[in-house]
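Customer escalation, tier 2.

The customer says the design service returned an amino acid string that "doesn't look like it belongs to this structure." They asked us to rerun it and document both sides in this ticket. The original structure tokens are below, unchanged.
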């Protein structure tokens, strides 16, 4: 659906080159929710703007639905752009227009007839749950409601792709969760492909199928959400993942744990696995006493991810056998040092 091939974007600022995006290659499949996560300045916004050609890549290709955007005529480009909707952190609503008109005006400019405009506005306002607010002005809405209007406005053009640049970054956690659920619903019910960028881990964790991690203009790692969460390789990915799952243990306690056994972090993927009493069986099968020090369950888009920090008390030979056993049971085991 979206293919980036060695896409680069260099800005010239006072004669100096700023390489915002470097050699990025990504493929986003139809119907997928793909997330790019990175710290501020990583090049995420530049990358997303290359996809709808708000920004022309300096080199490389952007291919949408098999069409190379840089090779399209102006007219064809317009047509392809119509397949792409976009939402932003700042909503970009017209302050002097009602909710209804915020959605209707861009449709009118596109030449859609009045009757169809009304049908679309009502349909998409009802999908985002704001039909009763159609005569309100943006100033009368909360942040979450404004973002819903922006989503309805994007959807009213019936795009195939929705780009989202930090759409939830200005919202509180509860509203963020509601908007993410809405995006998931749109993805599932309308089959929309979603490409989103964010600096927040919980956003990609909650709704994405796959993620790419960006730093200094480069994509430094990409993979499924589960693989990046359970087995992050690049230091930046680790920093993101660990920012959520660190269990800090005082150093004296750590030392005592080390001298009496092994500290491990366990990941259980999938519902069945979190119910499987693999850990309980360890103490029956081996001369090892597991104690759970910390734990939690995360809901990913399609999986449940259980995490436990466990101390395996016992001799080296025993806990090593226990670790092998757990690994064979499908538990992802990582030694904590
Ligand atoms: N229009 C522009 N002109 C010059 N430099 C820019 C422009 N837009 C972004 N940059 C620079 O490109 C880099 C990446 O910016 P951006 O894509 O906004 O990152 P992010 O969205 O990840 O925070 C930054 O160093 C930024 O200063
Ligand atoms: Mg940005």
């Amino acid at each position: 659906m979206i293919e980036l091939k060695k896409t680069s974007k260099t800005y010239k600022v006072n004669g100096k080159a700023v390489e915002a995006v470097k050699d990025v290659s990504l493929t986003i499949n139809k119907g997928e929710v793909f997330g790019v996560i990175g710290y501020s300045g990583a090049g995420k916004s530049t990358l997303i703007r290359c996809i709808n050609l708000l920004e022309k890549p300096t080199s490389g290709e952007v291919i949408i639905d098999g069409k190379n955007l840089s090779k399209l005529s102006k007219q064809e480009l317009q047509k392809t752009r119509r397949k792409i909707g976009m939402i932003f952190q700042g909503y970009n609503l017209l302050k002097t227009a009602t909710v209804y008109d915020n959605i209707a005006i861009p449709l009118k400019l596109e030449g859609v007839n009045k009757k169809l405009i009304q049908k679309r506005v009502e349909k998409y306002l009802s999908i985002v749950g704001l039909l009763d607010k159609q005569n309100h002005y943006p100033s009368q809405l909360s942040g979450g409601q404004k973002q819903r209007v922006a989503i309805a406005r994007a959807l009213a053009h019936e795009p195939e792709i929705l780009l989202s640049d930090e759409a939830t970054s200005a919202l509180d956690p509860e509203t963020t969760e509601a908007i993410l659920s809405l995006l998931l619903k749109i993805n599932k019910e309308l089959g929309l492909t979603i490409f989103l960028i964010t600096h927040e881990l919980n956003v990609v964790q909650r709704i994405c199928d796959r993620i790419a991690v960006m730093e200094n203009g480069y994509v430094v790692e990409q993979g499924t959400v589960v693989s990046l969460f359970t087995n992050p390789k690049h230091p930046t990915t680790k920093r993101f993942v660990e920012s959520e799952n660190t269990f800090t243990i005082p150093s004296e306690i750590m030392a005592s744990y080390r001298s009496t056994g092994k500290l491990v972090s366990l990941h259980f993927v999938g519902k069945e696995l979190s119910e499987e009493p693999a850990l309980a069986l360890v103490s029956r099968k081996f001369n090892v006493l597991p104690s759970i020090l910390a734990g939690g369950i995360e809901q990913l888009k399609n999986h449940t991810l259980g995490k436990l920090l466990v101390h395996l008390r016992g001799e080296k030979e025993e806990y090593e056998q226990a670790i092998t056993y757990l690994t064979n049971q499908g538990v992802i085991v990582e030694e904590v040092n």
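Tier 2 assessment: The sequence is consistent with the input. The longest strand covers residues 16-28. The longest helix spans residues 173-190. Sent an explanation to the customer and offered a walkthrough call.
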